[in-house]
Amino acid sequence: MRIRQTSSDAAMTGLGWLVLGLAAVFMIAPAILVVVLSFSAHDKLVFPPQHWGLRQYDTLAGSQYWLQSIVMSFKVAIPTAVLATLIGVPATIALERSRMKGKAVLRMLGIAPIILPGAAYAVALYLFYAQFHILGSFWGVVAAEVTIAVPFVILIVGAGLRRISADLELVAMSLGASRLRATLGITVRLLVPSIAASLVLAFVTVFDELVLINFVGGGQIITLPKAIYDSFRTGTEPLITAIATLSMVVTGMLMLISTHWRKASADRT
Amino acid sequence: MTDDPETSQPLQPHAQTPRKLGLKLDRVCKRFGEVVAVNGISLDIDHGSFVTILGPSGSGKTTLLRMVAGFMGVSDGSIWIGDRDVSAVPPGKRDIGMVFQNYALFPHMSVIDNVGYGLKVRKWPAAERVKRAREVLALVGLAGFDDRLPRQLSGGQQQRVALARAIAFEPKMLLMDEPLGALDRELRVRMAGELRRLHEELDNTVLYVTHDREEALTLSDRIAIMRDGKVESIGAPQDLYARPDTAFVASFFGGHNCAPCEAVLGPAPGTAGTVRVVALGQTIEVARSARLSADAKQAGLAIPGDALEFADAAGNTGAPAIVHSAVYMGNQIQVFCDVETKDGAPMQLRIDLPGGRAVPPSPGTRVRVVVRPQLVTAVPA
């Protein structure tokens, strides 16, 4: 059946294009600008660039400070993502499948760190960490970052889990499997794409995280976003455009992969 | 239940001598806080029989099944499979196969792996596992579907895989929770026939849960009718249909009319198990349910639709009534009549007339309804 387009439909279509246009101007254009600028051969930020080249990437490759900050970002983000998954997956299964009281409250608490205003949360953690003299400690930073990575695990794995029938585990148990085998072999096995997706998202979030690291990093833990932030206080280095471009490419790819996994698992169940 | 061997001959085609117990429920209770879902059910089921638990939703039938499966503990009482008390045994060690309404096939496993799962858990070698899984798949008519994934199968095929998976390791008991509920009507009837055929071939006890009385009629050796957490009545389908022992069984299971008696005149002289009553303007002698005491002062009548017929509208036999509506159904015509009662209480009866070429009476027609007492049972009011 053909649906006749009314004037209000036309207005809605126009509004849609307007929103898309604004999004393009304010969100995508700056990103493109950064990519373009990263190929300028100037030693200052100049727009439009007169000379083009890989100068920014060359400098980056030769800079211990920047390379070390990238390594530090990996060092923080990888264990954080792994820990958040190890904590988040069992927690999510308990939250979704058990019949305990106060589940909704616990779930809210679990995802609160990404709902609370970031700075307020960071200040609170700062005071707490100062009390115990763990400001600037590596595992202290990881612990802080885990709190904002766990909500992603709860949200993504929770969504995945709700698509998996609880009866599957019961069937496995009726067929002779132990509870552990049924949970791991069926439910967790079916959750693998969701778990992988949440691992990637947790990694990306922590890799890019600036607010907590600023407060609890104590100036010793310099991750990439922290290094970029610090460099801006002393002036703008054109090198940042190269870093920004690289991290956009890597993040973008990871997000594509994770979306693909989630979609694949959604199709299957 | 009457134990009179003349009137209730339980149908147990698999029963061998001596009778072997398949499942025994001993005063089984399940409480969720204040709510009593299953209230002291005791049941003995012979090995090899097909028993259906039939009840409306909320009657506790699924809770009972899940306790037998071991997914839930009993609050009280005990459950025996064969000669073993399994009340505290985990589901995997109870030697049961289970089929769910939504099939619950493992979506990431092929058909052959789904069917072989129970064997794999039991550590069968791969080659024997595949061989056995193929045998069972052939039994349910799905040979050649080995490598399909569940999502590539139709609902009926998925149901067959679920069934094959549940019987592959030859469990003593097969539990089914409304397994045909998600299928369309035609397929449901065909699958019911196949379930019955399969049951004849396999040496196991089936406990089947449904709210569909047709399924229960088609499949079962015995039917337990559940209501409010208790077994209201249990018996062979024929007995429950022809001689319901409560009004609930009569209406929910038999689809019979239930009419109050205007007076109960006591036992008919010279015949045990009968009672004389006044109902629908007639004094009749009808069978008395074992649940109705011989000296009861009040009673209801369970009247099958085909135990009612029309008398001459101008005469004075039977009860005056007005046709409310009539439905032509091919082999029969269902006529709904509003009967004029003495106390003015509304009473509607369904009368099943032979169909064929007969023309349904039009609404508003004045008629007189008479009852044929042979098919009627007096039950507690």
Q: Please, could you describe this protein's structure?
A:
The complex is a heterodimer of chains A (269) and B (381). Chain A is mainly α. Chain A has one domain (56-268): Orthogonal Bundle (MetI-like fold), CATH 1.10.3720.10. Chain A contains eleven helices and no strands. In chain A, helix 3 (64-97) packs antiparallel against helix 8. Chain A is globular, with a radius of gyration of 23 Å. The two termini of chain A are 31 Å apart. The model of chain A has no long low-confidence stretch (mean pLDDT 88). Chain B has 381 residues and is α+β, with helices and mostly antiparallel strands. Chain B has two domains: 21-247, Rossmann fold (3-Layer(aba) Sandwich); 260-379, Nucleic acid-binding proteins (OB fold (Dihydrolipoamide Acetyltransferase, E2P)), CATH 2.40.50. Chain B contains eight helices and 21 strands. In chain B, strands 6-7-8-3-9-10 form a six-stranded mixed β-sheet, sandwiched between helices. In chain B, strand 1 and strand 2 (35-46) form a beta hairpin. In chain B, helix 2 (111-121) crosses helix 3 (126-139) and helix 3 (126-139) crosses helix 4. Chain B is elongated and about 80 Å long. The relative contact order of chain B is 0.12. Residues 1-16 of chain B have low confidence and may be disordered. Chains A and B meet through helix 7 and helix 8 of A and strand 6 and helix 2 of B.
